[in-house]
Every structure is written in C-alpha cells, then in structure tokens.
Design brief:
Order of helices and strands: HHHHHHH
Distance between the termini: 95 Å
Structural class: mainly alpha
Number of domains: 2
C-alpha cells in the first residue's frame, strides 16, 4: 500500500527552483507577432522543417491540428507564453494554408464540426442497436421507411392539390 504521506507538502512548488521546467522561465517570444515571424523564418530557411509540415498536411492532418501542435510544442519548450501561443494560431493557420496552396496541397482547415460528431454518435447508436436489439432496429427502420414514403406521398399530393385548387378557383370566378 502506498504511503499517504509520500506527497509534496502544500506550497512546495513555490519553494522549488524555477529551472525545472521551460515554461517556468520567461518565454523567448513574449509578443505573438515575434513568434509568428520566427516560425515563418524557420519554415523559409529550414527546408526539412518546411517539408515535415507539408508532409503532415499532405497525408491529411488538418490546419487546426497542425497549428495546435506547433503552439503547444512552442509553449512546452518555453518559446512562447500561452496567451501569445493562442494569439498566434490564426496567423500561423493563414501561413500554413498559403504554404499548402503554393505546393498544390488540398487541406482541411478544421478537425471535426459538431454536426460530424452528432452524426457519428447517431451512427454508433444505431449500429449498437442493430447488434443488441435487431428486432427493435428492424421495426425502427421499417417505421422510418413508412414515414418517408408517407411524407413523399403527402408532398406530391399537396403540390397537385395546390395547382388543382388554383384551377378550381379560376373556373368559379
């Protein structure tokens, strides 16, 4: 059984040396504009870094994920403060989209939309229902088909009746 007293005492983190972690030191770039310029310079001067980013975009990484990775890595290495990293995301995204466009790479900007997540959840629920309760799934599916057929029939009927009503009203006037 672990010793319940084998843990740091309260406020101990304030008394330890600040050199333990890179983010405990002042960042290299306090202003997000300087950070964006440094990244741009790195990607224009360092062919390998540029190729690695372009390869990520080519294989399907989204701009959002790539920018988040760059910002998080820069923060964890002490290059930039968290707020400057957040502010730099939009200019970094624009820069990466321009790079991809120059190279003819088609990119996806955002990872997933809430609608994608909702559709995926619905699909997973239906898949589970099909496995666990096949009778209920079949009943729901047949009920849905009947509802679609009824709506289609009602839609056709209402279109016809609308035109029919117009012709009837014209003949009675």
């Amino acid at each position: 059984m672990p010793d319940p007293f084998a843990r740091p005492i309260p406020m101990q983190s304030l008394a330890t040396e600040e050199d333990n972690w890179a983010w405990n030191k002042p960042p290299q770039y306090a202003d997000y504009k300087d950070f964006v310029e440094a990244i741009e310079e790195k990607l224009t001067s360092d062919k390998q870094a540029r190729e690695e980013i372009l390869d990520m975009l080519f294989i399907g990484a989204t701009i959002e994920d790539t920018v988040n990775t760059v910002a998080t890595l820069a923060f964890s290495e002490g290059k930039v403060s968290p707020d400057a990293a957040e502010l730099a995301k939009l200019p970094l995204a624009a820069m990466l989209m321009d790079m991809a466009k120059e190279e003819g790479i088609t990119v996806t900007v955002f990872s997933k939309t809430p609608q994608d997540t909702d559709a995926e959840e619905t699909h997973n629920k239906l898949k589970l229902m099909q496995q666990v309760n096949p009778e209920g799934f079949d009943a729901a599916q047949s009920g849905l088909k009947e509802q679609i057929a009824q709506e289609a029939a009602d839609g056709e009927g209402s279109k016809k009746s609308f035109l029919k009503m117009e012709n009837e009203n014209a003949s009675t006037v």
